[in-house]
Amino acid sequence: MAGIFVFSEDPALTRQLLTPGLELKRALAQPLVALTRSSAEAGALAGLGADRVVLLRGAGAPEALAPAVAALASAASVVLVGGTLRGKHLAAHVAATLGAGLSTDARTLRVAEGRLETTRILYGGLAVGEESLALPAVATVPPRTFPAPAPAGAAVPVETLDVAPDARVEVLSTQPAAGEGVDIGAATRLVAVGRGFNARADLDLAVDLAGALQAELACTRGIAEDEHWLPVERYIGISGQTVKPELYVAAGLSGQVQHMVGCREAKVIVAINKDERAPIFEAADFGIVGDLYTVLPLLTAALKD
Amino acid sequence: MPNILVCYKWVLDEQDIKVRPEDLGLDTSRAKGKISDFDRNAIEAASLLVEAQGGDVEALSFGTQALKLSVKDVLSRGPGRLTWIGDPAAETADAFVVAQVLAAAIRRAGPYDLILCGEGSSDMFFQQTPVRLAALLGLPCVTFVQKMTWADGVLTATRKLPDGTEEVRVAGPAVVSVLGEMNKPRIPSLKQVLGASKKPSRELPLASLGLAPGDLEPRAVRRTPKGFLMNRRNIVYKESDPAENVARLVASLKAEGL
């Protein structure tokens, strides 16, 4: 059946997808169908404006449901998928099956002249591009791009569908991240660290500042993936987290575009760097040119007063 | 001993692209080409695998005629031979078209035990090609791989999840996308660079792949991109007295209600 289909294995993200989904429903005058793997979530989705809620029952990894989702949405006009790693896998498979275009990490979505128009980031964040997709079209939407919609009207009944996942890839084991399970994306204040720190122990300076600001600690890709000083869930950037805090303090990081794309929607950006020509100052509201080893303790003390 | 195909994209180096302030257009006139960053990780992963346990690595790319510039670079990084398709259609191709072209070339030249790709290209970052290839070729696909081993025709891989990792096993042939954190791509030695010119490379005309016109029609049409403009206040305190700078910053943050 025709319609707008939304899916994410992440319940919060499924709800967020309903917001652009409802816009597309109005523009295309087609039903909105929410797909979920979570029976607890299905009930919540039913009261948020979807015309149908389908609970997909079947073991296997979320992306292994791609053939089933593609079959279910075989006549869809638009399929929106939450832009997680697993979601991107599923979305690309669905797009290939439908012979459809796929806009990756779409930030805006609208229908114009019978096509889906999106904006997305190119060249590691240097540029923003518009894409115009023939229908049927698929798009992945990053977490927190849209708020969840308000409850609307009577809840629709939840349908249940047993699906067979792609069993060729066998999952042997799952290891939770060694990190602390912190949700950097939800933090309203962040202190981010980069290569300007000489040693892992020196991050204490940033930890102290974060304490004074009631902020969470974040970092660049290099600190998480090359130095392994902080868990990967704390790194901000095009292949890491995207955040929208009230305050983003960038200490000892140069401000490469691949990092800034993850934080440039922060309300206020503060930069501390000893190199006056570092690109971070172009991207900051306020900055201090100075050695972080001097500036951070002073700033922490001043904030505590 | 696996027969591996590694796909790569020749892209403009984004470090060389300048945003024109007057119209936010992109000035690419000084941008040099490079093998897309994550594809270098895929090439390195393939090369390390066969250097350790034997087998073959072939490289495959679809792009414009500018691809010619990549031949020596890619072959100096380990692959034993290269097939490339250079055609103006690559200029406007979306991931749908790229996957159709690569899949057609693979059907012709394959089969391969493993098809490796980077997690996404550093220019467009569609992150779709490996999964689309797998779907078109009817192969299983493992994405966002951090580690992998190959033994007796079976791939064991560690894939990244949002909140951890997962170990998976799949019998080849399979398609795999590798993450940037998987390895550090080599800087080819002089010997490897000299050796590259002796390795075979062949250009396949796009027309020889037997694709229908619809297979070459992008489903997603790109408009001219605009540079992203950072609209920030850029108030920078740079007095010689650090305490003075800190005091001013704290006052500014207070004025913002922070």
Automatic annotation (TrEMBL), chain A:
GO molecular function: electron transfer activity; flavin adenine dinucleotide binding
Binding note for cofactor: Binds 1 FAD per dimer.
Transmembrane segments: none
Domain Electron transfer flavoprotein alpha/beta-subunit N-terminal as annotated: residue spans: 4-176
Cofactors named for this entry: FAD
Record's keyword annotation contains Flavoprotein: yes
Record-linked SMART domains: ETF
One biological process term in Gene Ontology: fatty acid beta-oxidation using acyl-CoA dehydrogenase
Pfam (any one): ETF
Listed PANTHER family: ELECTRON TRANSFER FLAVOPROTEIN ALPHA, ELECTRON TRANSFER FLAVOPROTEIN SUBUNIT ALPHA, MITOCHONDRIAL
Family: Belongs to the ETF alpha-subunit/FixB family.
Name recorded for this polypeptide: Protein FixB
Gene: fixB
UniProtKB/TrEMBL annotation, chain B:
Domain Electron transfer flavoprotein alpha/beta-subunit N-terminal: 23-213
Molecular function terms from GO: electron transfer activity
Signal peptide: none
Keywords: Electron transport, Transport
SUPFAM superfamilies on file: Adenine nucleotide alpha hydrolases-like
Lineage: superkingdom: Bacteria
Pfam families: ETF (PF01012)
InterPro entries (UniProt xref): ETF_a/b_N, ETF_b, ETF_beta_N, Rossmann-like_a/b/a_fold
Protein name per the record: Electron transfer flavoprotein FixB
